[in-house]
Amino acid sequence: MSTRADFDRYLVPTYAPADFVPVLGAGSRVWDQAGREYLDFAGGIAVNALGHCHPALVMALEEQATKIWHVSNVFTNEPALLLAKRLVDATFAERAFFCNSGAEANEAALKLARRVAHDRFGAHKHKILSAFNSFHGRTLFTVNVGGQPKYSDGFGPKPEGIAYFEYNNIESLTQLIDDDTAAVILEPIQGEGGVLPATPEFLQAARELCNKHNALLIFDEVQTGVGRTGKLFAYEHYGVVPDILSSAKSLGGGFPIGAMLTTADLAQHFGVGVHGTTYGGNALACAVAGALLDVVNSPEVLDGVIAKHQHFIKRLELINGQFGVFSAFRGMGLLIGCVLEEKYAGRAKEILDLCSKNGLMILMAGPNVIRFAPSLIISENDIDEGLARFTEALKKFLG
């Protein structure tokens, strides 16, 4: 049997996974090799939108697996066509490009923005503006677009034409944007940057500034999209429509898939051979994503996400009234950040480890924020039981 020690023996050490190895999941519960049960508030980093092994996803995968898996984009396939239509019908978009991850979706979005600017205005219009402390992926381009040097430094010369503004600071963006700007890329809620929502005023200003300077507005909804906030996509909360939107994570419910959504007018700049992917839009991934949308894009699930957010916050405030560990709770829907009080700054990992020992899987969003991103259909009983385990971990944290 494989063990956690095999990770250190055989895998490149880009991660430091937990000591236990999950082997079975059902709904919002996971079991490790020793048969120990955990409640899952991590959701595979906001990926497992319907929890583990949801019957609709299992059925879609099994059914498609007996038909056809992969034909490449030399051909098309029925699940990809159906998924594209469904996403277009449900959003501002008129065209979809499928890939395998959020990084690839953002890479496609940024390449499209630069291609549009190049075709319409010339090579001088190429600047990409991004927020400090943002995160847009791990390719060499996207990791540099993300405004976090801890991820981007140490890989030699950086791509040119990228500049950074302060998130939620209209003046900072106003001073930076100009007629050489090809695109502004924003997370409606900064995920890895601490579960920090944009203000409506900031997103509206970004939209107006992009219009003024003929720049495209890209929303990175890799983490916030597909029901996570209580709308299918977070931009719907703000009434601000982007030119390009990237999606991944929850879109496949655990099966790798990403998507870039845009208008027909912009999509025409990605003609045949301009961009591509071998695996993107494969039949297995698209079949699973289509089944997931059947469940998630419904009033019952989306309204339930908002109700569960309120339940989480109410319970967290009661817990914090007892312990005083957190200074704020922020986020939308079932993307929740618990911000540590200053005196506990930098100690989120300690809480995460104690939660694991108490049978609860959680996340961090930087060293000062505990992040919850559970299944969108998690029951209130599971929320309550998970928060009871969270309470026990906090007791041990305070010693």
UniProtKB/TrEMBL annotation:
Pyridoxal 5'-phosphate binds at residues 102-103, 135, 220-223, 278. Its cofactor is pyridoxal 5'-phosphate. It is an enzyme of class 2 (transferase). The modification N6-(pyridoxal phosphate)lysine is found at residue 249. Its EC number is 2.6.1.11. This is Acetylornithine aminotransferase. May also have succinyldiaminopimelate aminotransferase activity, thus carrying out the corresponding step in lysine biosynthesis. The lineage of its organism: Bacteria, Pseudomonadati, Pseudomonadota, Betaproteobacteria, Neisseriales. Keywords: Amino-acid biosynthesis, Aminotransferase, Arginine biosynthesis, Cytoplasm, Pyridoxal phosphate, Transferase.
